[in-house]
Inverse folding.
């Protein structure tokens, strides 16, 4: 603000810049709003296939899964999210075999790093795109992934 | 160069690996050598890239990665002390200003005290923390360090070790804030610190006299955690450092591991990684713009930036399965092939963003209030930028050509043509403009890459258990806010012996005091916003 | 055009028939007070809702849309929440001043609110220095803000209050001078006279250039007076978290909040009264039929409509501009607005003396 001319030019260019900003915001005032109308749009809201919502065990229609309780997922998990509980049974031909009892997954500590899914030798688990995970207590986030009464799919 | 170093320090051990000298120097002559390396015209190692505290079992020590901004040469210094009970090394904070906070970090984690360092407080841990967590013999028993629920008083004075003329080491007290100073806490819960960062600010009316940075409110010990995780597992943690350039951080760690393994990744994976890096950079800079406007009080602008960033996050979600934490890179390539929609979406976005950028400039950049609040505020000179190690857009605003994409091209950056945006003045406005123009430049890179993605595998198969050969590996990338480096020391196990992340954020907060002093409170916020630090990246 | 005096006189006459004279006055005072408070509260609720909606639309959002259709009940529920919230007792505050501050702010705002001529005949206080009283009353609010900042025993609050002090003292000058410019044109400080003398044309047209300049300055200074963005330095949330009202909770905070919004309306209402003809309908000379139709719209709608436009402009400022820094704020006032204002006042005197106005 050394000269009178600068004083006035600064004033008017400043005023111009303010009016320009106001013009833009007024333009946005009338544009389409981007608010997502959740939960009204629940029916149409679809997550992308690859979205990692939570871990789930794949079961077929006969309530059978692929998990052989090898525990590789448990070993790979960086945050001790997975616990595989298994029973040791003796099959008819006298072999000892591990059978999955409970597949426990603590959703609260999952990092979604996919190491379990990628390292599973039998593709027994996958991430599914659910996203409404809110619960009232932390215990409810600990889930059992194998369904009640499910068993290993027999290979023919 | 070897001979010259031998001339200065005859009993140094020098190895050469890949054209880089690894110099082990005895503690007594270390400071002399460091000073000569910095000052002598033959060396001019003016940039301390990374400083890593180490515990080698018998000895404790520090590894310094130095780089010359003049010749581009690099050198690695290493010094150690066998005194584990009371380890002392000489500070280099008088040579490279960035060593100041880094030495405090090493002090907190390894207990090495630095002689002549002005301020020997722990950087991340509480003062009543028992033991030094990154030492190998650290006892992590929860009884020793329980979760303390009492609040910690912030001392106004600190201890410093000084070397007297007679060669004795003397403890002295260094006063940070006088008793009659008006000290205000900005943070750790404050709308403008972008996370849990805490400034203690001495004020004189509206004028800031001094800023004291307190970190560690979101320190998670990621480096310590990495030491007990396998290499693929460590990847999951990088996304949580600077969550705004999650993909880029992970890229750095993957590259470092791949280089150590000698793994060559497919060309397609390189293209995908580069494209994703640039999308991340745009998203991060858009977020910078939004939050910076919000810091300056233009809340509407904030929403415009977020609206447009959302489009990138959607792309990430479709291809990677995550919005903020993409979890996409893996050792040997990427997790999955790109989604069929991605290319179309990126093309749409390249058309969509430029008019929006114009709108941004209209609503904020050109605005007289914003201009006056940015111009000539918080000027960071080139010398200071290098000495403090302020890389990334903030360094480039001071005229420092520090873009890792240009210096050591990785990914497919050597195939694309792009400008390195630099300004010379180093004020807030320059820092702001560098980022805004980098968005355009990133769009330009995407434009060149999007139709060129070669066919082929997106990843190479790796063994289920990855072991790195013995050695030290350092790799850096250009993250959205500066040079992100990964240093791995491997002893041949499936776990790393030591992992150090060179965070771009730590140098950024170390200059806050320099820039904000003698400015107003509002300028402190503006400067903080323009440096664009991300707190989890500082605290790690 | 409907004259509101009919209603008030009818009430007066009825009361006179029922009660002795001294009681009539008392009852009327109470009635007026109740009406005023209700109007004040309703106005505040409406403004808060409007602000949220307008702000949302500027920001590509929808704003409140959960409680009631289009979220219109939202502010009511918020008010109920605010009323039943605990007022937290804070240690080490000057309790008397701390509790007094919000009342000073709200009373100043109420006093100013009561001077506004809402419609033909609908005016509570109308005396010969009306506009002068309005400025004086509204300036008391600053005392409350200073007290709040001081008594809170909080460093952020104190800085906020000091900023507020500097800001108010500066911008009071501009407000005063731009109002003075219009008083020169009218020759009266009585609000009813000011409105009535605009029957043949609003001052913004009659006073042309000097009136327009005065209007712009008034709007800027008025925004600054009400501590609204881009002049919201006293409560700059990104610097001082919430400034002078950081420590307040419950309805005490509510008083500050409500007063801020009604003060915005007062600024808009005074702008309407001084520059845009108050409750006068739009008349275009020569268009008789048009003028007749305009007359059918009740005067209260004219007044509220014009004020709403002013309020929208003030909101538009807030949701477009970044916040000023304290030195920019003072530069704007002392180096730009004040000199321009003085020249403008001189120009207006010149215009009035040589009868250059319409």
């Amino acid at each position: 603000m050394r000269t009178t001319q600068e004083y006035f030019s600064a004033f008017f260019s400043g005023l111009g810049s303010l009016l320009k900003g106001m013009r833009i915001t007024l333009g946005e005032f009338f544009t389409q709003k981007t608010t997502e109308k959740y939960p009204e749009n629940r029916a149409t809201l679809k997550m992308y296939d690859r979205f990692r919502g939570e871990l789930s065990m794949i079961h077929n229609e006969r309530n059978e899964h692929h998990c052989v309780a090898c525990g590789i997922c448990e070993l790979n998990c960086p945050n001790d999210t997975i616990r595989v509980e298994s029973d040791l049974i003796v099959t008819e031909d006298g072999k000892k075999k591990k059978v999955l009892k409970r597949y426990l997954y603590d959703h609260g500590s999952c990092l979604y790093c996919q190491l379990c899914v990628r390292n599973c030798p039998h593709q027994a688990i996958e991430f599914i795109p659910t996203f409404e995970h809110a619960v009232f207590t932390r215990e409810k986030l600990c889930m059992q992934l194998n369904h009640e009464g499910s068993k290993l799919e027999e290979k023919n | 160069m070897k001979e010259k170093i031998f001339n200065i320090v005859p009993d140094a051990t020098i190895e050469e690996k890949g054209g880089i000298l690894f110099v082990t120097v005895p503690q007594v002559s270390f400071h002399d050598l460091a000073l000569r390396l910095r000052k002598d015209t033959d060396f001019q190692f003016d940039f301390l890239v990374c400083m890593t505290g180490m515990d080698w079992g018998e000895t404790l020590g520090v590894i310094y990665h130095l780089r010359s901004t003049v010749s581009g040469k690099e050198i690695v210094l290493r010094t150690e002390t066998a005194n584990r009970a009371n380890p002392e090394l000489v500070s280099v904070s008088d040579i490279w200003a960035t060593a100041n906070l880094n030495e405090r970090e090493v002090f907190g984690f390894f207990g090495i005290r630095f002689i002549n360092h002005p301020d020997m407080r722990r950087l991340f841990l509480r003062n009543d923390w028992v033991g030094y967590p990154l030492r190998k013999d650290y006892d992590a028993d929860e009884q020793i360090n329980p979760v303390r629920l009492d609040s910690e008083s912030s001392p106004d004075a600190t201890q410093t070790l000084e070397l007297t003329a007679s060669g004795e080491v003397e403890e002295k007290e260094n006063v940070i804030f006088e008793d009659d100073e008006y000290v205000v806490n900005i943070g750790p819960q404050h709308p403008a610190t972008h996370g849990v960062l805490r400034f203690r600010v001495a004020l004189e009316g509206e004028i800031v006299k001094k800023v004291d940075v307190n970190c560690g409110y979101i320190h998670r010990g990621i480096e310590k955690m990495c030491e007990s995780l396998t290499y693929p597992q460590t990847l999951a943690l990088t996304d949580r450092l600077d969550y705004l350039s999650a993909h880029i951080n992970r890229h750095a760690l993957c590259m470092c591991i791949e280089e150590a393994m000698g793994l060559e990744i497919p060309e397609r994976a390189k293209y995908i990684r580069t494209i994703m890096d640039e999308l991340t950079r745009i998203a991060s800079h858009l977020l910078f713009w939004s939050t910076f406007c919000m810091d300056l009080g233009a809340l509407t602008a904030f929403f415009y930036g977020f609206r447009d960033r959302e489009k990138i996050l959607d792309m990430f979600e479709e291809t990677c399965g995550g919005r903020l934490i993409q979890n996409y890179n893996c050792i040997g390539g990427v997790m999955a092939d790109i989604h069929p929609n991605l290319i179309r979406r990126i093309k749409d976005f390249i058309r969509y963003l430029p008019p929006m950028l114009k709108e941004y400039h209209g609503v904020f950049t050109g605005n007289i209030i914003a201009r006056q609040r940015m111009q000539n505020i918080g000027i960071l000179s080139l010398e200071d930028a290098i000495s403090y190690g302020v890389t990334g857009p903030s360094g480039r605003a001071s005229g420092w050509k520090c873009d890792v994409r240009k210096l050591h091209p990785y990914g497919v950056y050597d195939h694309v043509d792009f400008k390195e945006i630099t300004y010379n003045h180093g004020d807030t406005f320059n820092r702001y403009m560098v980022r805004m123009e980098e968005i355009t430049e990133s769009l330009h890179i995407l434009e060149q890459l999007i139709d060129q993605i070669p066919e082929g595998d997106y990843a190479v198969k790796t063994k289920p258990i990855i072991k790195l050969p013995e050695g030290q590996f350092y790799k850096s990338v250009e993250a959205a806010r500066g040079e992100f480096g990964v240093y791995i020391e491997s002893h041949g196990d499936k776990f790393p012996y030591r992992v150090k992340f060179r965070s771009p954020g730590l140098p950024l907060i170390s200059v806050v005091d320099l820039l904000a002093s003698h400015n107003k409170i509002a300028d402190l916020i503006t400067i903080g916003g323009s440096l664009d630090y991300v707190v989890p990246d500082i605290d790690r | 055009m409907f004259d509101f005096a009919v209603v008030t006189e009818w009430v007066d006459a009825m009361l006179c028939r029922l009660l002795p004279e001294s009681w009539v006055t008392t009852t009327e005072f109470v009635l007026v007070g109740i009406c005023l408070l209700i109007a004040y509260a309703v106005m505040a609720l409406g403004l808060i809702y409007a602000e949220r909606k307008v702000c949302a639309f500027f920001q590509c959002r929808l704003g409140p849309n959960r409680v009631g259709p289009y979220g219109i009940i939202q502010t009511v529920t918020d008010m109920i929440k605010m009323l039943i919230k605990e007022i937290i007792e804070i240690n080490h505050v000057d309790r008397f001043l701390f509790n007094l501050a919000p009342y000073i702010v709200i009373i100043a705002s109420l006093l100013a609110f009561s001077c506004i001529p809402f419609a033909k005949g609908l005016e509570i206080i109308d005396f010969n220095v009306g506009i002068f009283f309005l400025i004086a009353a509204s300036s008391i609010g600053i005392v409350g803000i200073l007290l709040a900042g001081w008594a809170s025993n909080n460093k952020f609050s104190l800085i906020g209050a000091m900023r507020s002090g500097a800001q108010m003292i500066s911008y009071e000058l501009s407000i005063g001078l731009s109002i003075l410019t219009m008083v020169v044109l009218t020759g009266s400080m009585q609000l009813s006279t000011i409105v009535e003398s605009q029957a043949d044309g609003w001052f913004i047209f009659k006073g042309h250039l000097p009136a327009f300049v005065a209007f712009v300055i008034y709007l800027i200074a008025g925004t600054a007076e009400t501590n609204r963005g881009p002049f919201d330095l006293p409560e700059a949330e990104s610097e001082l978290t919430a400034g002078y009202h950081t420590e307040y909770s419950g309805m005490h905070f509510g008083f500050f909040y409500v007063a801020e919004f009604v003060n915005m309306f007062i600024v808009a209402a005074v702008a309407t009264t001084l520059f845009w003809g108050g409750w006068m309908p739009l008349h275009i000379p020569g268009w008789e039929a048009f003028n007749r139709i305009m007359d059918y719209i009740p005067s209260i709608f004219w007044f509220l409509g014009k004020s709403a436009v002013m309020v929208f402009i003030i909101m538009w400022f807030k949701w477009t501009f970044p916040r000023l820094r304290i030195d920019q704020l003072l530069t704007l006032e002392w180096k730009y607005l004040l000199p321009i204002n003085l020249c403008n006042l001189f120009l207006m005197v010149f215009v009035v003396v040589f009868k250059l106005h319409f």
Notes: The helical segments of chain A are 4-29, 72-76, 115-119. The longest strand of chain A covers residues 96-106. Strands of chain A lie at 54-57, 64-65, 82-90, 96-106, 125-128, 142-144, 151-152.
